[in-house]
Write a structure and sequence with these properties.
This protein is of the alpha+beta class. Helices cover about 25% and strands about 25% of the residues. It is built from 4 helices and 7 strands. The protein has a 4-stranded mixed β-sheet with strand order 3-4-5-6. A 3-stranded antiparallel β-sheet has the order 1-2-7.
C-alpha cells in the first residue's frame, strides 16, 4: 500500500474515532440543571421575617461529579437578576468541599468557616449559618453512616451536628427530610 494512501486512510479512521468520541466527551462536561438545598435570607426582609428559609434552589453545574455539585452550595444565589445574594453560605463566605471514595460517592463534607465573616446588618452569627449549612447538607446526604459532615475552623475539624432529641430542637439536621422524600421542599428555621 502506498504511503500516501495509508496516511489518508489513517486520517480517515482518526476522524471517525474523534466523531464517535466527541459526543461522549462533550456529554461529560456539558452543564446540567440541578437543585441544591440552601439557607436563604434577604437583608431587605421585614423584621417579622427574620427566619432563615431552607429551600431547594435550581443551579447550573458545569461538572458531572459529586464534588462539583457539593461546591455549588457555596455559590451566590441572585433571584430574578437581583444584584443581592440571598445564599447565607455564600454571603458569610463559608466554603463547602467534599471528599469522595474511589467510586465517586461523597464520604465527607467539610464546611470551612476559617475565612467566614458576618456582614453588617445580618442578624445571624457565623455559628448559626454553619448550623444551617450542616442542616442543608444533611438533607442532601441523610445517611450519617455514609457521609460525615464536619465544620472546619483554622484547620481544626469538629462535628457540628446536633444530637437527636425528643423535643426536636429547631434546626436539628437529623430530623430534616431528604430532598428526595415527599416532604415539601421548603422549611423555616429561626435565628
Amino acid at each position: 500500500m502506498p504511503t500516501c494512501h495509508r496516511d489518508s486512510h489513517t486520517m480517515k479512521l482518526l476522524g471517525q474515532l474523534v466523531a464517535l468520541l466527541l459526543p461522549i466527551i462533550a456529554q461529560g462536561t456539558q452543564p446540567r440543571l440541578m437543585t441544591v438545598t440552601l439557607p436563604l435570607w434577604y437583608l431587605g426582609a421585614a423584621e417579622s421575617e427574620q427566619a432563615i428559609l431552607i429551600a431547594q434552589v435550581p443551579m447550573i453545574c458545569g461538572g458531572t461529579d459529586a464534588v462539583a455539585w457539593v461546591e455549588l452550595h457555596s455559590r451566590p444565589v441572585r433571584p430574578d437578576g437581583a444584584e443581592v445574594d440571598i445564599n447565607l453560605i455564600s454571603i458569610y463566605k463559608l466554603v463547602i468541599t467534599a471528599e469522595v471514595d474511589r467510586d465517586g460517592r461523597v464520604t465527607k463534607i467539610a464546611i470551612d468557616t476559617s475565612k467566614a465573616v458576618r456582614p453588617t446588618g445580618y442578624p445571624f452569627t457565623i455559628e448559626k449559618v454553619a448550623d444551617e449549612a450542616v442542616a442543608c447538607m444533611r438533607r442532601e446526604f441523610p445517611d450519617k453512616s455514609k457521609t460525615k459532615i464536619v465544620v472546619v475552623h483554622d484547620g481544626e475539624e469538629r462535628s457540628h451536628e446536633q444530637p437527636t432529641t425528643e423535643q426536636g430542637g429547631g434546626g436539628n439536621a437529623s430530623e430534616l427530610p431528604s430532598h428526595s422524600s415527599t416532604a415539601p421542599p421548603m422549611s423555616r428555621a429561626t435565628p
